Amino acid sequence: MRSQEELLKALSDCVVDMEDELVGEVAQEYVTAGYPALDGILKGLVDGMQKAAALYEQEEYFIPELLVCSEAMYNGLEVLRPHLESAGSQEKHKVVIGVVEGDTHDIGKNLVRIMLETAGYEIYDLGRDVPLQKFVDKAKEVQADVIAMSTLMSTTMPGMKRVIEMLEEEGIRKNYKVIIGGAPISPAFANKIKADGYSANAVEAVTLVDRLLQG
Amino acid sequence: MTPKERLYAAARHHPTERPPCICPGGMMNMMFREIMEASGWRWPEAHMDAHQMAGLAIALNKAGGFENYGVPFCMTVEAEAMGAEVNMGDLLAEPHITDYLLAGVDDWTQLNSLDLNRGRVKTVLQAIALLKQQNDGVPIIANITGPVSVVGSLVDISTLLKAFRKNPKTSSIFMDSIAGNLIAYGQAQLAAGADAVCLSEPSGTGEILGPKFFREYSVKYINQIMDALQPPLAMVHICGNLHSVYDLLPELHCDIFSFDSLVPIADIKAAVPEKAVMGNVNTHALGTSSPKKIAQLVRSCHRKGADIIAPACGLPTTTPLVNVQAMVAAARDVKNING
After folding, report:
1. Least CB-CB distance to A68: which of B165, B208, B313?
2. Which pTM does this prediction carry?
3. Would the CB atoms of B89 and A102 count as touching at under 8 Å?
4. pLDDT higher than threshold 60 for residue A87
5. Which residue, B89, B135, B208, B296, shows the most beta carbons closer than 10 Å to its own?
6. What are A149-205's pLDDT values in tens digits?
7. From the CA of A201, how many Å to the nearest CA of chain B?
8. Architecture of the domain whose range is A94-214
9. Helices then strands (H, E): number in chain B?
10. CATH classification of A4-88, choosing from 1.10.1240.10, 1.10.606.20, 1.10.569.10, 3.90.870.40?
C-alpha cells in the first residue's frame, strides 16, 4: 500500500501530467486507505494544478494543456469531495463570474474560474452572453465579494462599464470588488470605467483577487 | 497608381510612393455606425442584403475611408452556413454564435456542407459581384474565418482544445472537412471577383494553442486553404501575442502578414522578411482617441516598417469617421524611401 505522501504526489502528478483518466483510480486508492480528503485536494490535486499554472507562466504549457490538467483536477475532486468533513470547510469568499452580453468567447473566463476555484474561492459562473442585470442580481443574491467580467470583443466592452454604473445606481458599488479582463481590455480601460482591477491572464487573476480582498 | 495596383505592389515589396491604407473586413471589420447612419444602410439588415453590404463598403471608401472594399462585416458566415445558430446583433453589436452546434469533435458528421447558393454565403458572393461592377480600381478583399476559429464556433472551444490533445485523429478529420468547406467558399468569392483573400484566425493563435498545436492545426490548414485558392494576394491575420511562434510564421503561405497592436512591428519584420507586413493601428485608439493621435500612430507604424497601414483588429462600431479619415490621410502623407 502506498503511503499518504506517495499518493499525494501521485495525485499532483496526475494533474500536471494530464492523466485525466488515471486520476480517479488514484483518488479512490487514497480514500480507501483512509487518508483525509482535504489533504488530498489541497496537497495533491490543487498542488498539481498550481504546478501546471507555473508551467503555463513559463510557456511550457499552453491553454490546451491547462484545460486537460484542470479536467484531471475535476475528475479527482469528484472522488474526493464526498469524503470531505464538513467541519473542514470554512466560509469561502464568493466570486460571480461571466462573459458580458453580446459575446460568447468564454475560454478566458473558464480558465479564470478554474484558477480561482483552485485557489479556494467559491465561484458562481453565469456563463457567456450574460445579460448585464444578471451580474448585479446574482452578486446581491449570493452576497458576492467579487464580480468578474470578461469579453473578447471591443464591441461589448461598454457592457462592463454599464454593470459598474448599475451597481452605483443601486448604491451598492462599494460592496463588491469588480475585476475585468479579456483580449481588448487594458489597465487603462479598467481605470477609466472605475473597475477595481484588471488581470492579463488567469494566473494573475488569483493574485489580483487575493490582493483586493486583503486590502 | 490605383489603390489595387498600390496594394499589389506593396504586398510584393515593389516600389510605391507611399503605403496603402486598408481594412480587410470579415473578423477585421471595417464598418461602423457613422457610415451606416449616413448611408441609411444599417446593421443587422446589411449583413443579410448584398446591395446594402456592398453599398456600405462603397460609402465608406467614398467618405475618405479605407482604400479597399472588405466584406462581410463579421466572422459568423461560415459557421452559420454549416449549421450554427447566429444572433444577428444590432446596429452596434456584430453577429455572434449563440449556441454550439456539436457536443464534441466526434459529431463532425452532423455538419451541413456549406451551400454556396443559400443564406449569407450567397449574400456575400453577390455583394462581391456588385463591388466588382464598380470597376473603380479599389481592391475587393474576400474574407475567410480561420479554420480553428470556425471549428471553435461549432464546438465549445475548451472541448475542442482538449480534443486537439486527446483525440488528434478525429480532430484532424474534422479540420479537413472544415478546410474543404472554406476552400469552396473562397473559390466562389474569387470567382465572384475578389482581388485578394484575407484569412483571420482569432482562436487558432500561438498564444492560445502554443507552438506545437499552432503548427499542427493553424499553419497546416491555413496553408491547405491558401494552396488550394492561390489568390492573387493572400493575407493572414493572427490575433494575440505571437512571440512563442515567431519561428513558425515564415511557414505560413501568404504574401501579407497582419497582427495585433501589442505585437512589435520590428519583431514581425525580423520573423518574416520575405512577406509584406501589415498593421497595426490600435483599434481601441481608433474608436476613442483624436484624429491627431491616430495620424501619429500611422506615422509610427510606417516608421517601424509597416508596408501596409491597417487597423490591428476589427473596428468598434462606435469608431468616429474623422479618425478613419485621419488614418487614411496620414498614410497618404508619408513617403516611402523606395518610392
Report:
1. B165
2. 0.90
3. yes
4. no
5. B208
6. 999 877 788 999 999 999 999 999 999 999 999 988 999 999 999 999 999 988 889
7. 11
8. 3-Layer(aba) Sandwich (3.40)
9. 14, 9
10. 1.10.1240.10
